Amino acid sequence: MRFSRWMDFESVTWLIVVLLLAIGLATIYSATVDTRGTRYVYRQLLAIGLGLLAGAAFGLISYEKWLSWAPTLYAASIALLVGTLAFGHAVSGSKSWIGIGSFRFQSSEMAKLAVVLMWARIYGGRHAERLRTSPFRLRDLGVTSAIAALPVGLILLQPDFGTALTFFFPLAVLWFLLRMPLRYWLVLGLAALMAVPIGWSLLKPYQKARVLTFLKSEAIDPQGSGYQVLQSKIALGSGGFWGKGFRQGSQAQLGFVPARHTDFILASLGEEWGFIGIVLVFLLFMALFTRWFTLAGRTPDPAGQLIIALVLAFWVFHFGVNAGMAVGWFPVTGLPLPLVSYGGSFLLFCLSSVGLVLNVYWRRHEVLSRL
Amino acid sequence: MKPIQPTPFERPLRRFRTGVLLGMSVLLLGFWRLQVIQHSYYLGLADLNRVQVVRLHPPRGVIVDRHQQVLADTGVTSVLVWEPRRPQADPRRVFPELFQVLGWPETQRASLMPRVQRLSAYYPERLNWALNTVDIARFEFYRERFPDLVLQTRPSRSYPYGPITAHVLGYVGWIGPEDRAQPLYADYPGDAVVGKTGIERYYEPALRGEFGQAYYVVNSLHIPVQELKAHRRSPRPGNRLVLAVDLDLQRIAYEVLQDVSAAFVALDPRTGAVRAMVSTPSFDPNEFVPYIRPERWRDLLEDPARPLQNRVIQALYPPGSTFKVVMTVAGLLEGWTTPTQTVTCPGYARLYNHVFRCWKPTGHGTVDLHAAIVHSCDVYFYHLGARAPIDTIARYAAAFGYGVPTGIDLYFEKGGLVPTTFWKERVRGEPWYPGETVSVAIGQGPLLTTPLQQANVMAMIWNRGVQYQPYVVQAIESPDGRVVLRREPRVINRLRAPEAVWDFLHKAICEVVQAGTGRAGRDPNVPICGKTGTVELLSDPEKVPPELREKYKTHAWFVGWVDWPDDPMAFALIVEHSGHGGEVAAPRVREIFRRYGALRRPPPSASPPRSRSHAVLPMDGF
Description:
With 371 residues, chain A is mainly alpha-helical. Helix content of chain A is 74%, strand content 4%.
């Protein structure tokens, strides 16, 4: 068994992950070497190393163990979020970083994993069996929402609107997987509509500006948040089909692209590598996601399927919003691109979740033999 | 082995997968649209984004006098520009720090803060704050602390003779909104320096040169990282102006007159070339470069002595007795009098039931026309005026150039006033009374003129009936020394009269200085001829309390010519509120020409223009 597990290493996922990390490193290098030297590249390499360690922990310790530790992990991440609120570092207006020495960590990333594991633990077991025969109940809506609500509430208090938003899509995916009836969707949709004015009043001015800019046009406020989107579009558009070549992108090189190595890395990439480069990145992500759907289909364990599906939901949301932001389809939310964007905490989450996905796949036979 | 039951999630998982792949494909279409379909549009934007065009200011043309002495020079100055490079740049935080660094006193800071409050966080603005060398050195030392402030070097203007040449040269300043509305300034950048008055304004198109352009590749903070040298267009310096003015005469006249309110102009009667144009009190035009401090500007504007006014062309005075020469020409040509006709002057004349007093209460006795001019007998001209229709007098006055601007190459010139019956009815709504003509005959009444017109009247008499348009700029030369334009004399008035009339006038006017009212202007070494004039501001000074008499004291005129064969000059001098023309104005004219005559150089030979095919500049006045 042990031997066949190593043979079944899941080389497709590994290959894609390594390629995306490499593309990310190259783009980060190109976008920052002029102004900041190789500092960002080395820090990203360090984050990859740490991420691999975390990934090993989440990949090698059986996911069933992780599921059994889920409540502890969840409690720990809640504690960490509270601690962040109390002792965190404020970066551009929001307290979302917690630091140990010179090392800083965005505590919301750990909460994502904990929430995934909590959801999978509760609805991958006997509830999955129940839902096979009996319909989705209001209680299920309550339980699934409550698990997300606690960290989301704490993250909103930081306040980090973008990160809080990332929990809603996996939650919806979970409801979809649990076959929530249509009437719930309708009622929830209606409630969401009614919540818009209230939510609006809670937004910070810069967030309101971002949403307004998105709804109107970048021409209104060329120096504000519309400026960022416009610069991103100029970088991408001027890159054209073939791109301007490695380190030849004037927009990214001269610093016009905002957050060119983090949130708008696709703009830097698209300028220098053109539409061809964007297609490559899309194909890699599509292949990765398709592969993970396949992996999910291969495990007989509902809990394992939920883990893969919910991890996928987080990744898809990040990817979709990040790419949509780069072309100006979505408001600027500050969500990084998985594996490619510079940023240690999110990379830690990404590689940990890769570990979990592979974990589920690797242990499918153990689970199967128990059935 | 029992059959494996499918999990409940398999069908929704398949749908989820389909949705994800569909969504990603749609997103990819967004990139396709941006990067392939709209590529050329965004490529254009990208070039705009990274290339910044900088206007290069040309050095302004130099202005020299007729002996090539520099009157207005080009120097270099530094100005501070607010260029917010960061979206969060806050002027209210940046400037207090700047003032701290520059060590400016608290009062100055407080007065500058309102200007700072008005600055935008997004748009660059020029700050018209003069920085001295210490300020500049301090700013450079702490430059990194002020990424949103830039020092720009600019060609600047300096006037080495300051107040001496202030009114004729004018001054330059930042282009204002009222300037920008004119088509002439359409392509000027908003921070250009333009001529505001005087020659600087009139010859702006010749002096400005051509703006150049440099293209810089900039980063997102608009910091230039590289210049696209192949695209650089260097600025072309402005043209050089050669004035007809003689700096020595100008300087001496200013020195002689700087203690009074006066206007002096001298011109070449053969061409109209202005040799000197002095208006006192004056101001220092260097204070205006590149901008004048508001409180200083207010002081100059509100000064009752009106130092900003160019009295030579902008102040209006009655001509007083100097008008008698025009009356003489009219009287001889119209037959109102003859050279031999005499009048007995008892010190007054009773005409139209009114007593008109002569300036000399004891009277001149029996005088002919020659003696009436030489001693400026009012009574003789009262009787002349009683015989003359006002509209005929007006025709002669107009023939000498009264009543309309001469068209000198300076803006804001006034034309004065020549009264007619038509004018009286239109403006005052009353008929002309014959008694008024009596006053006009001695240059009083509604008659108004400028010192420039007065000098040109004398030039016309010297010329025996030909009057030229006065001008200041003799030639325009390109920066490399080619003559672009040379001023040709232009006749503006011509009066045909028998030579005997001109001979009579010349003799009488020269006799004024030798034996008449202008004796104080006589100098053994300078051939001065001239007519005195005294402008009464009160009809009856005896009725006015003594403390007001000083304020309404008479203006003193002395107008005439200096008959240097190689360099004749017609001149006019008025000294405001000073006394009689013969006692105040004539000695000062003598002083001016005595001192100038002592160091007079031969006039520069007028070399024929080398080329006139370059006359492409859009010029007013030519």
